[in-house]
Design a protein that fits this description.
This protein has about 350 residues and is mostly helical. The chain is about 55% helix and about 5% strand. It has a 4-stranded mixed sheet with strand order 1-2-4-3. It is elongated. It starts with a strand and ends with a helix.
Length: about 350
Amino acid sequence: ATYQGQPGTASGGMSPKTAARHFSSAGPHAIASLKVETSAVLKELARFRACDDQTMSCFYCREWAQWVYRKQISPQAAAAAASASGTSAGSAGRKKKSKAAGAPPPPPPSLASGAMQAATTGEDAVTSAAERKRAVRQRYSTVADLCESLRGMVADERRLLAADDGGDVTGSSSRPGSPAPAAAISDERAEALGSSTLINDISERVTLWYEGHQFPLADVYEDLTFDFPADAFPYDDHQDPLDPALLLPALQVTKAFVGLPAADFALLGNITSELIATHTYPTCQHTKADHPTPAELETQRLIFNAQLGKWRGDYRRSFECEMEPVWQITHLLLKSAQRIDAMRVRLFARGCRANRA
């Protein structure tokens, strides 16, 4: 059995503490839960008294009570409704799928789908390039890390060249132990020199690194948010056991009702007669000038984030202007290294072999 009543009342005019002991005990009057209609809760919140009974200008308690309802009660009701609608939608989807099993196959895609696919491919390429820059930047967070990786690349290249010099490069010798012809050795050496991609690999890695460089103080200028933590309830171990707010995590919320199970009826004892009296005769002494409501705090947050965004943009632009000459010098250095490497290939690798031929 369940009992449905108005907020702050119990059966037969009993106090909440007496009703908790009476209805939660085993016996003929034992019930499973107390339920209050959600619409009744909303009405009570809408006509909640002002904090000052004279000027009636401060609604600090009402605004925060409605905020707690939106953050603690409404998400549970929405989740319950979504779960119910998801179950019904799933069954309807299965019915539609069974009906469509004998339907003819869909028509082939049109030319528009090809254009959309091409656009998607272009977007994927841009996204992939951005991810590569971000990955290189995260892997080598400092210049020292980048230089260490470049030294590793040079060391690997040296080991490969040393292995080529010490290995068997005789190729097609006439008999074991006989030296290879000079022309054959020169061709193989020229091929090894011409196929080296060390300079290009260094240039690519450095370019990805500095193109992925971002404003280093972006985290310091992060926007202020008022995220309500999912684990705000239950409270910690130092929470007052007589706090009426301990009822909140015990509530069972659906779209139609807000319920309290019998196991938590004892928490109704935290709602004392003095607390109920403050709903008519306020004793909180809140004032509009000193106690901002959630809406006022949100306005202040937006103003603060707007000013913070202005400072962040100014400092970022200043940082980019100061770093631009550094990146230009780096870019010119990489291009010079690539030109020198291309000249080396022409003189000692492919060009040398072509002139000899």
